[in-house]
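Box S1 | Example of a co-folding query
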Amino acid sequence: MVFITVANSKRILSKIDLKKLNLAGKIYDSPIYFFNKREEQSLLAYKELLMNPERFVKEVYQKAEIRDSYMYVYEGETPCYHKTKDCERLTAEFCNFLIPKEIKERGTGTVRRFRAWFKSNRSLLEGKEEVFEMRVSAAFGVRLRIEELAPRKNSGVIAMNNWSLEELESRISEMLKQARQYYYQSSKNTAILKQYGKLAYLGNSPNQIINNRTGYSDAEVKTFLRDYEEKFKQPIIAMLYDYYRMKFNPELALGVKLLEQLGFRACHSCFF
Ligand SMILES: [Zn+2]
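Box S1 (continued) | Returned holo structure for zinc ion
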């Protein structure tokens, strides 16, 4: 058995086209009603990876379409597996960067050009940020703040690593209870969540919402959904990922052959 990082275990999922998946199974012991198909399939795929990795490779990974989301600078690069849990590279948190919105909007060709450009200018991010910003502007004609490159932390911002499985379970149950109460807390909450609870991501989407029958304006609905996503859905999703990991494979220990099928290679630092 060899080891991978939490970030890399999730990157396996980011390469799969979730729309094409159709996994059956239980997300949690108690029913959760506010997940859409994409969220549900993503959670079930992660659960399968940890619970039954061989089946994951056969039934999910090899059958699914592998895609580039064009969201990150380092995507489609080979991630590593490690011989020991002490490997310094395993503990160093993988550091990725977001593709800025203005670049992404110009299409995949520009994203690829930005990625190549970024790799040769990355060192400027350590102490020469102004030079970096100037060069982006010269090369791509965009004014960019460095902060835009930092991946958004999973909202909820709770460090879950120190919780035991039991603690995690009780926190998930508690938050699910709060989410149920919130649904009935006011007629506004019920009206909006009934129609858009599963689609709460629309709050953060640049797209317009359609067929709004809630009795509240589109703008009000969006603001509400953004808040709901941040207060309930994202924290619950983040806790469920942790829950699966702690329950089924807390060390993220997997077989070499299996990881090579998933596109991993041996870490140069601990294998040689
Ligand atoms: Zn290593």
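Residues 82, 87, 89-90, 267, 269-270 surround zinc ion (CB under 6 Å). Confidence is low (pLDDT under 50) at residues 153-160.
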